[in-house]
Amino acid sequence: MAKLWFKFQRYFRRKPVRFFTFLVLYLTAGSLVFLHSGFVGQPAVSQNQANPAAGAPVEGAELTFLGDLNLGRGFRDTGEVSSIARRYGPWFKGKDGNERAKLGDYGGAWSRALKGRVVREKEEERAKYIGCYLDDTQSRALRGVSFFDYKKMTVFRCQDNCAERGYLYAGLEFGAECYCGHKIQAANVSEAECDMDCKGERGSVCGGANRLSVYRLQLAQESARRYGSAVFRGCFRRPDNLSLALPVTAAMPNMSVDKCVDLCTEKEYPLAALAGTACHCGFPTTRFPLHEREDEQLCAQKCSAEEFESCGTPSYFIVYQTQVQDNRCMDRRFLPAKSKQLIALASFPGAGNTWARHLIELATGFYTGSYYFDGSLYNKGFKGERDHWRSGRTICIKTHESGQKEIEAFDAAILLIRNPYKALMAEFNRKYGGHIGFAAHAHWKGKEWPEFVRNYAPWWATHTLDWLKFGKKVLVVHFEDLKRDLFVQLGRMVGLLGVAVREDRLLCVESQKDGNFKRSGLRKLEYDPYTADMQRTISAYIKTVDAALRGRNLTGVPDDYNPR
């Protein structure tokens, strides 16, 4: 044996090239074996994981119009695994007719896609994945708005954009393209054809070449009801002087919401008011402020051309807000002369400071500044972001500072306070997901969230206490009150800023209040991230702040802080 080994060494010593060739071949063979085992040896998923709600109907799984258009098979399955079996074909079932639980039986690409679908469907409550669909540049499957991002496209970003515009479906294609629509006008195809990762989220599928990964959006969220891209504002009494309040009127014997909204959009008015067989268009004004909503039963007269929608009556109007932008409050500029006082817009991070700046700029027509510089906010229209905070060219200055020296540098302040439970989550989302993005589930479940609460929760209390103690002239505004009664609270804020604002301009702000700085609510956590210890600690901070406010004869914290 030793003699054989000696001959082997002498052979390669004389021919080193042969040795290295042999070594390369050996390593290559080992790599191929390793890769092969990675593709065919995927971990198994238990039956409970693959089918957490066996026997329960899949919400939103039936698309009846597909049958009418003869574009593909219908969706009438029960349970997630049966849905997967439908998508992947009859081969997914075993010899005994039961769905297979192992994800690795059919190759790595299939197993990864299948595993991703199971996990995603379990996590997404607000958007339901419904399948892979054919798309054509000449005849789009989703024919609403679209946008592309070849660097940062994610599933949730596409969903959020489509949901904010009132669409029922969001589709992703080619890893970077997002399409919205009210109706899918294409055939369902094999899931394997949607095989491209999202450009901004590796591991998530964003369609394929001429293939859409389509989601149905659950739009019954928060306070806004929609009809297509129009936002439902409510039922309102007919204004006293109709021709002045709503200057455009058209008779519509075959009235429908679509027809009235389309007319007002074409005429470039932000409000569409349905009054039985008449359509009125206009702006929110003091003659028609949309502040006193009536019982919807007073408007419950069916549209003549639409069976399931109400079209109002001659005395009570159903009002929708169109996609037309109300430009009466969109002009903004720097102050014409240097301001003699510095006014802070102070808040704890996550308390809605960026949203408040948006409202103030629309209400006053002047840019707001910042103690910091955020290039992303500057690019989104906050032009005062680049100015030094002492420049005197902006109407107020955003700040999160809470030290005595920093606070005493300002002559007055609007102190914006928000429920700490909501503020902490908002700031955590901003820190890990951007101004309107979301933190990943891994961040919530990992060490980041407990550490964040431990460091930031005390700051929420000391921030308010410091401003109450060291601020020279402080106007306290609760985020919840601003959201609930924007007209009154924004009027208070503008009053401190010393700017005379017409009432019609404030009404315009109401209709543009969300801007581009609101999270859509699509991706809400399915569990409470606050542990019992966290809640006890935060509740103590809330009581301290409440006592400090009441000690200065101010309104205490809103009732919904505890319990949240």
From TrEMBL:
Keyword terms: Repeat
Domain WSC positions: 126-218, 229-323
GO molecular function: sulfotransferase activity
Record flagged with keyword Nucleotide-binding: no
SUPFAM superfamilies attached to this UniProt entry: P-loop containing nucleoside triphosphate hydrolases
GO cellular component: Golgi membrane
Keyword Repeat assigned: yes
InterPro entries linked: P-loop_NTPase (IPR027417), Sialate-O-sulfotransferase (IPR051589), WSC_carb-bd (IPR002889)
Family, per entry: Belongs to the WSCD family.
Protein name: WSC domain-containing protein 2 isoform X1
Protein encoded by which gene: WSCD2
